[in-house]
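Q: My labmate handed me this sequence with no annotations at all. I'd like to see what the chain might look like in three dimensions before we decide whether it's worth expressing. Could you predict it?
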Amino acid sequence: MRMLSQSLDAAKRMKRFLVIVVTLYVVSYLIGWYMVNNQIPPAVQMKQGIHEAVLSQEPFLFVLDFLKRGKLLEAIVATFTVNLSVGAFLTTTLPGIIPVLGALAIAVVTLIRGFVIGVTYPEVLATSPAAFVLGIGTLILELGAYVFSGAAGINIAIAPLFPRRYGVQSRIEAFKRAWIDAGRIFIIVAILLVFGAIWEMTGLFLIAH
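A: Here is what I predict for the chain of 209 residues:
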């Protein structure tokens, strides 16, 4: 409980960044949805390209193979591992190691990810009631995790510029404390992604069988 309490305290310190990341996701999602809904050619072509790319990606094929062979636990573990390492840490937190520019990189990744989801997800949600429930749950849990990891990355990138946010004068010390907070935030990230992987893979498993 103490670790979770520290995680929540760290989240409170990043409240502004959390709001920024959520806003970026919502705006980019709505833009993607609007463009596809109105059959704007670039968005339609992008949707087709994304579908083809996803279906040929090694992680997707790897997880799909587990599901086909009835290995639900392995599919959950693989999904969680990829989402935590690549989806959260490498793309939305680690760039924060570069002051200022890292924050901009995370913002760009967030905008692209939100746009891609806006382009592709509405069609998935409209497939069936089961797909809608599965998709919404996955979206809330996994995207929620990326909101926290993105806010942690931005906080790291900004910390050396405003060390007094951590009550210190040293930029290096503020940078270190931002990484400590990121570690605390990743407890929340991991919890959300565990539940996200269980929800998504169990749902797909049940639909397939």
